[in-house]
Amino acid sequence: MSSTAEHTFASHESGRLHWWQDGRSLALLSATCFSLKAIFIKLAYAAGPVDAITLLAMRMGLALPAFILLARWGGGSTLSRREWFHLFLLGVTGYYLSSLFDFIGLKYITAGLERLILFTYPCFVLLADALIHGKRVRLATWGALAISYLGLVLAFWHDLMLVNVSQQVWIGSAWVLASCLTYALYYLGSGVMVKRVGSSRLAGYAGAFSSGLVLSQFMLTRSPAILLDLSLPIWGYAIAMALISTVLPIWLAARAVARLGAGQTAALGTIGPALTIFFGWIILSEPFSWVQLLGLVLVVYGISRLQKKS
């Protein structure tokens, strides 16, 4: 066998046996894990009486050791007081407030609608960036924004028509929209800090600060003894949220970005809302309609166009 043929055969075997080294596979798996977060939250709520703060504390407490390891593996130089303060603020907005608002919102709305609302955060990032830096938003960008929010309106209408108490949809959507806004603030701030401290340390320290805030809130407002009264299924879903939908996708996304770049990784992540709606339909028996499907297509298309123009 010639050296060229041997190299080709080895590459084929490597691609077949070591699929986890392929950037696209990593990005898609990361999007899948992220899309399951809302499913685990809804399952935990259905498994027994548990409130948003307690469930979030379980998730972040279980994920805290992984955040610490992620920060240590990041290496790098000593951080200044200003950098520590910025990381703390990112932890407050990106992992603490955003997660808390999201958990509360999922008490009221379907996992599919929640994912679509969260998916529009690039719209807020773009508008805030334009406002802060005085940039002019192009007409084509406004068109992409309009398409995205038209799809979101359709998805919202789908839930509104299927829920007997329409007020719940308004309340839940407002909470998730607040989550979307706080995550947009995190994204804006992380763009500056990631160049200073690196992606691993940024995610690790911001996550660790957030975990500390969540656990502090839990200790001040709840009795730790209530954790002993929670059922095993609730603990199981909390562990799944911490490992499968928090730690693992962050690690997979970082590896995917290293192989593909942020642009391609983000583009592959657009499959996330579709996966959440699919899992909600299969696992949670959430209702599905063509109106919701059309809304999904419009949101994903609009955000995809927005990312290409940004």
UniProtKB/TrEMBL annotation:
InterPro entries named among the record's database cross-references: Diverse_Substrate_Transporter (IPR051258), EamA_dom (IPR000620), EmrE-like (IPR037185)
Pfam families registered for this protein in UniProt: EamA
Keyword Cell membrane attributed: yes
Superkingdom per UniProt: Bacteria
Membrane topology note: Multi-pass membrane protein
Location of the protein in the cell: Cell membrane
Residues covered by the EamA domain: 25-156, 171-303
Record's protein name: DMT family transporter
Organism: Leeia aquatica
